[in-house]
Amino acid sequence: MNGLYENEMRLEFASKSNNEAFARITVAAFASQLDPTIEELADIKTAVSEAVTNSIIHGYENSEGTVKIISKIFANTIEIEISDTGKGIENIELARKPLYTSKSNLERSGMGFTIMESFMDEVSIESVVGLGTKITMKKLIKKQEHQEDEKELDMAELGGR
Ligand SMILES: Nc1ncnc2c1ncn2[C@@H]1O[C@H](COP(=O)(O)OP(=O)(O)O)[C@@H](O)[C@H]1O
Ligand SMILES: [Mg+2]
Q1: Which residues are CB-contacts of 144 (< 8 A; sequence separation ≥ 6)?
Q2: If you take atom 3 of ligand 1, which residue's CA is the nearest one?
Q3: Would you give per-residue pLDDT tens digits along the chain (161 residues)?
Q4: CA 32 to CA 75: how far, in whole Å?
Q5: Which residues pair with 81 in a beta bridge?
Q6: Residue 39 contacts by C-beta under 8 Å, 6 or more apart in sequence?
Q7: Whose CA is nearest to atom 27 of ligand 1?
Q8: Measuring from atom 16 of ligand 1, which residue has the nearest CA?
Q9: Partners of residue 78 on adjacent β-strands
Q10: Could you tell me the residue ranges of all domains in the chain?
């Protein structure tokens, strides 16, 4: 599958909650080459933050581990993969449900996956109990403007003939 994407970055860090800000800022810096709006950038940061927090709190349950992020840019879409080799999710369908949390005693909101789904265009969850979890999210940047640009380009081409 070489050559399908235009740019890629990989990041690995210890599962410490103070790395959560580092992760979201780094992904935002990588995403900024797509020239996103402030709002699109905020959506990406929030989604990354939720997924990374889940790996730290649920995947590793605050024990030592490594969180890995791979991000790719294809045309005007950013794909972000966040994975851990922690405990895994038993029931993915249940975990995705709004308000579901396995840690209600810790005052978790159970809204992490719902937030990721509302801020990103696509969210997929792969998980194997005992092996870990991988969240893949995609977001198309500047849908309107790119469509407008294409239209303008088409018009320019027509005008030139
Ligand atoms: N990386 C992960 N590893 C293991 N379990 C996870 C992971 N991410 C999410 N989960 C499970 O999915 C549930 C729902 O996640 P989420 O919607 O973010 O709610 P919350 O984090 O508030 O519990 C969690 O309570 C947890 O049981
Ligand atoms: Mg969460």
Answers
A1: none
A2: 59
A3: 445 579 999 999 999 999 999 999 999 999 999 999 999 999 999 999 999 999 999 999 979 999 999 999 999 999 999 999 999 999 999 999 999 999 887 778 899 999 999 999 999 999 999 999 999 999 999 856 555 566 666 666 666 54
A4: 13
A5: 70, 136
A6: none
A7: 102
A8: 112
A9: 73, 139
A10: 7-160
Span 7-160 CATH architecture: 2-Layer Sandwich (3.30)
C-beta 46 within 6 A of ligand 1 = no
Copy the structure tokens of residue 54.
């889940």
108 is catalytic: yes
Burial class from Cβ neighbours inside 10 Å (0-12, 13-18, 19+) for residue 100 reads middle
- Please report, as a single letter, which amino acid is at residue 71: S
End-to-end CA distance of the chain: 37
| Residue 54 falls in the annotated catalytic set | yes
Q: Token digits for 112?
A: 């992490």
- Here the tokens at position 63 are 């024990």
Residue of 56, 68, 101 to mutate, ligand 1, most atoms within 8 A of C-beta:
101
